[in-house]
Amino acid sequence: MANRQVLADHVHEELVAALVDGRFEPGAALSIEGLARELGVSPTPVREALARLEHTGMVRRAALKGYRVAPLFTPEELGQLAEARKVIEEANAEATCRRATPELIAALAETIERLKTAPTGRSYSEFRDYWKADEDFHRLIAEHAGNPFLLGAYRTLGGQAQRFRLFGGLGVTDADSAIAEHTAILSALERGDAEGARTAMDAHLEGVRRRAVADTATKGAESDDVI
After folding, report:
1. What letter would DSSP give residue 145?
2. 196 lies in which domain range?
3. Do 213 and 154 share a structural domain?
4. What's the CA gap between 24 and 227, in Å, rounded?
5. Are residues 13 and 57 located together in one domain of the fold?
6. Are strands 66-69 and 59-62 parallel, antiparallel or unpaired?
7. Contact call for residues 165 and 58 (beta carbons, < 8 A)
8. CA 108 to centroid of chain Cα atoms
9. Do β-strands 29-30 and 66-69 pair in parallel, antiparallel, or remain unpaired?
10. Predicted pLDDT at 1
11. What is the CA angle 75-80-82, rounded to 5?
């Protein structure tokens, strides 16, 4: 069972890298059998990986037509995603603040240190560790909020994937801002300031939305230059 999970995670990682780096064009069909042959695996882990990716919005599945690469989110969709993340993650931050332990504070601080030292280059392999540290920060807060329904909603939203998909070809464009915002959230948690934690999370997600819209415009301009 463990080996199967390792294989499934490997396939998922390979597909994320391909999607983020733009090796599949938006709208391109994703053949389960073809990907399985390319990756040297059976169709099962490919099917499982695509199902996971569907939750992030990076791929879409149509009945009887299979999976296709989803286009990058539009500014309007990024705004809608930010609003959904605010509903979930602000509540998580407030609830977690009331339950925070020294161990959690230390774990969150460690993710910020990883952000500070992680590479932020233009390809997925270059900013993968940064993505992981960023994701761990938000995940830890969600997991310690004490609400399994909010945790489930957080896990299915896929907000991190949409943000980091924009970094393919650009690199991480907002590391300094994100680190400062994470630090502000952590400071509120350390103080036991639940309302401050909610406010700091709101400021962070609004900053993410604003910067994501700017990165969307940059990627669109680069695509026009290529054409």
Report:
1. S
2. 75-226
3. yes
4. 17
5. yes
6. antiparallel
7. yes
8. 17
9. antiparallel
10. 55
11. 90
Q: Which residues contact 36 (CB under 8 A, 6 or more apart)?
A: 42, 43, 45, 46
Whole-number Å distance between alpha carbons of 131 and 124: 9
One-letter amino acid for residue 103 of the chain: E
What's the pLDDT score for residue 10? 93
What DSSP element (H or E) covers 21? Answer: none
Domain boundary among 69, 90, 108: 69
H-helix or E-strand spanning residue 156: helix 148-157
Total of domains in the chain? 2
C-alpha–C-alpha distance, residues 121 and 23, integer Å: 17
Residue with tokens 């969709």: 77
Q: CATH number of the domain that 60 lies in?
A: 1.10.10.10
Name residue 195's amino acid. E
216 neighbors 163 (Cβ within 8 angstroms): no
The pLDDT score that the predictor gives to residue 158 is: 82
- State which residues of the chain have pLDDT below 70: 1-2, 222-227
- Shared domain for 10 and 107, answered yes or no, is no
Instruction: Indicate whether 57 and 100 sit together in one domain.
Output: no
What's the confidence (pLDDT) of residue 224?
54
Give me the pLDDT at residue 227, please: 47
Please give the Cα distance from 38 to 28 (Å, whole number).
16
What is the structure's pLDDT at 53?
93
101 and 182 co-located in one domain: yes
In angstroms, how far is the first alpha carbon of the chain from the final one? 47
Please give the structure tokens belonging to residue 4: 């199967």
